[in-house]
Amino acid sequence: MPGIAKSRRTLIVNADDLGLHPDIDRGIEAAHREGIVTSASISAVGSSFEQAVELCRRNPRLDVGVHLTLVGERPLTDPRRLGDLVTKDGRFVDSHPALVSRALTLRLDRGAVARELGAQVERVVDAGIRPTHLDGHQHVHLLPGVWPVVVELARKHGIRWVRVPAFVPVTAGHPGAAGLALRSGLNVLQRVRRGALGALRCADATPALGMSGHLTVDRILEGLAAVPDGAVAELVAHPGVTTPALRARYDWGYDWSGETAALSNPALREAIAARGFALRSFAELVA
User: Fold this and answer.
1) Are 99 and 78 contacting, i.e. CB atoms less than 8 angstroms apart?
2) Structural domain includes residue 70
3) Total of domains in the chain
4) What residues make up the domain containing 146?
5) CATH number for position 260
6) What are the phi and psi torsion angles at 74 (to 5°)?
7) pLDDT 10s digits, 184-206
8) pLDDT (tens digit, 9 = 90+) per residue, 228-282?
9) d(C-alpha 168, C-alpha 149), whole Å
């Protein structure tokens, strides 16, 4: 076809937070059916998990992984055995910085982490889903005390792909001092994690990661421009349908509907192909 470059780079478009909220699920399904989303990550502790499983069943081409969650939700296992993973009300800690603080001060019980994350993966598997990849809600899977558990879960369940994200550039979206510090720390962690993957695989790049939650066509294409030839890139996306209920539940400031619209824009699919990217899923790359 004239104007379409031969594919020389691979792009996986993964929608995070499947199962957290019905309005997120609606956007993910739309961006998969009408747009470029090839994969999604489901949270086993989300309030709409059962409905999300049905979504996966009626969209068999949607590749599904597990969105390991240790922040902001209720655990699957007995909170009395989870130590500093939970607060007094039995919920996970509210924020990523709070969990980071516990991880860096060695307050996370590896056995507790293993029980909870193991239960999350098992719930997904028991629902009839064969996960192809693992990642973490707010990147918790990279943290000390958590990462070894994630690697073991991947090996146990025959999961080949684990997300090891990098913020390039680290200043994208002007995150502020606290956000910049967290991103810089994660960039250090990802270099360490990439060196210890063994037989596991991760994408070579996570373009536009700093703009995730606020992705537009232009921001996506700007991020993809930095992906080198021959690379596998994972675009981390957060489509949804912005509603008062969703904003009340999650105060992240995301433009869920805007991302759904961008990912579903036919012009984006054409531009991606013209730039030499082939859209794939994790499942297609495992074979």
Assistant:
1) no
2) yes
3) 1
4) 9-286
5) 3.20.20.370
6) -95, 135
7) 777 777 777 887 788 899 999 99
8) 999 999 999 999 999 999 999 999 999 999 999 999 999 999 999 999 999 999 9
9) 27
